[in-house]
Amino acid sequence: MEELIERENVAVHVTAADWKDAIQKAGELLVNSGKISRQYIDEMILSVEKMGPYIVLAPKFALAHAAPSEAVMQTSASIITLESPVRFGSPNDPVEVVLCLACIDRTSHINELKKVAGQLMKDGMLDRMCRCESNEQLYELING
Length: 144
Description:
The chain has 144 residues and is α/β, with parallel strands linked by helices. It has one domain: Mannitol-specific EII, Chain A (3-Layer(aba) Sandwich), CATH 3.40.930.10. The chain is 39% helix and 22% strand. The chain has five helices and five strands. The chain has a five-stranded mixed β-sheet with strand order 1-4-5-3-2. Helix 1 runs antiparallel to helix 2. The radius of gyration is 14 Å and the shape is globular.
C-alpha cells in the first residue's frame, strides 16, 4: 500500500476556533513531523488573506497550501477533521476537512495532489472521513 498521508499527519475531531486556527492545526502536524517550519503555516494563512477562500474546493473541504518555499523541508501532506465546522467565507462553507499540502517545488505538488485528490474525491469520501472516530480509522480510509 502506498502511503498518501503518514500516520502522524492524520488527526480527527480537532478543535479550531476559526479558519486560521484550522490551517494552523493542520500545519502543526507537519511541523511536528519535521516536514515544514512554522513559517509555512504563516504563508498558508497569508495566502488566504490575500486571495480569499479559494482553498475551499468543495463543500466541507479546504486544501490549505502556499507557494513552494524554503519553509518546506519535504513534500508532504496532513489531514484533519474538525470537531465543529468552521467558515472561510466561501460558498462551500462550512469546512469540516482540512488537507494541508506542502511542496518543495512547483512540479512535485502536481503529482502529489493528483494522488491525494483522486482518493479524496471518491464518491462519499468526505462524509466517510467526517465519520471517522479515531486517527487510525482516518489513516486507513485515506491510505486504503
